[in-house]
Amino acid sequence: MTKTMCVIGLGYIGLPTAVTFANHGVKVHGVDINPNAVRSIQEKKLHIEEPGLQERLNKAVDEGYLTASTTPKEADVFIISVPSPINPDKTANLEYVREATKSIVPYLRKGNLVILESTVPPKTVERVMIPELIQSGLDIGTELFVAHSPERVIPGRIFEELVNNGRIIGGINKKSAEMTKELYQLFVKGPIHLTDATTAELVKVMENTYRDVNIAFANELAKLAEDLDVNIWEAIHYANFHPRVNIHFPGPGVGGHCIAVDPWFLVELGGEKAQMIHLARTINDGMPLFTAQKTQKILNENNIAGGKVAVLGLAFKGNVDDMRESPSLEVIHELQQLGLEVVSFDPHIKENKHPTQTQNFEEAVNDADMLLVLTDHKEFKEYNPLSITPKNKIVLDTKNCLDREKWKEAGFQFYLLGDAKNK
């Protein structure tokens, strides 16, 4: 079994992956271009939030199985886990993948395995990585083995899903796929499926695009429900009792490093062949404006001109500190464009990362005309509304995470995304 590994990229996926391999007896050297992240890891301090990560990091470093620096070194296996964002024009930015691949070339030797974990457009291994790896002088497929094994985990449950989720592995040839399977069998309990690299790339993007299209459907239903005086959350709940129906839930937009990004890969590749995917992305990208306009409408109905909105939640999902592609940021922008004052608070984001942000909940809500919940953090669900005294007791819940009756009993006018009624 492999004795040494070099993991390029120590973010939300790379660090948990590196730590997991280290905890299973692999000597792992982690690499990141951010010296602050490297220093934090060396000092056993976390630069990201994930349940269970601190204990696993402590064990890996203390036992000597995990080191970190800003430069790679020789190893048996190289895992690339770097961002693959989109450009402002919605095209894929693959420079992180390209540069990460280029960075390991001087350290490659015969028999090495290179694995891409980043979610990427189909053909990235073939068109971006292989041309860089050829520069090693090693014969691709016989002396140097290459595979794509995309991560399939969600922040907040990464370690559980790293172990229990099934894994798709696409090799440039059969040997590459088999070597990668043997490696991940160290800890993966879910089924491992082998295919070619391009199929694996497409499978991961398909999975996230399916969810994006489903959410867009839910968001359209939410808008329709408001016109029909129906609570869409209740309607979806009942519809999902059908054994062949699984409608997702609406919200103020779609965030995260995958669902809000990956469908654009297919739009870029497919053009006119990806019309439904493009439409779904457009619908979901339009939800921050819809949310902001609904907020303004509620203020107007309560005879509040202008007004101050306390935005609760900056992370893209509950109980994490991840702000990547968070719709909250766009909602805030749209609110400000409408002339509203905004202050934001997120208990999981410990230092101010946004101009409207405060670290003090009371400061955010005390003189607010309206509370706007954009993230379903556990803390928000547990707040006692009797102890919250804004200027005007109005709340809009975009995640259906608050106890409506409790908030109404505390004197709040309660509004819900996907439900026009203030019940």
Automatic annotation (TrEMBL):
Q: Which GO terms describe its molecular function?
A: NAD binding; oxidoreductase activity, acting on the CH-CH group of donors, NAD or NADP as acceptor; oxidoreductase activity, acting on the CH-OH group of donors, NAD or NADP as acceptor
Q: Which UniProt keywords apply?
A: NAD, Oxidoreductase
- The lineage's top-level taxon is Bacteria
Pfam families referenced in this protein's UniProt entry, alphabetically:
UDPG_MGDP_dh (PF00984), UDPG_MGDP_dh_C (PF03720), UDPG_MGDP_dh_N (PF03721)
Q: Which SMART domains match?
A: UDPG_MGDP_dh_C
Oxidoreductase: is it a keyword of this entry? yes
Q: Give one GO biological process term.
A: polysaccharide biosynthetic process
Q: Where is the UDP-glucose/GDP-mannose dehydrogenase C-terminal domain?
A: 310-404
Task: Return the similarity comment.
Answer: Belongs to the UDP-glucose/GDP-mannose dehydrogenase family.
Name it.
Answer: Nucleotide sugar dehydrogenase
Tell me the organism: Ureibacillus thermophilus
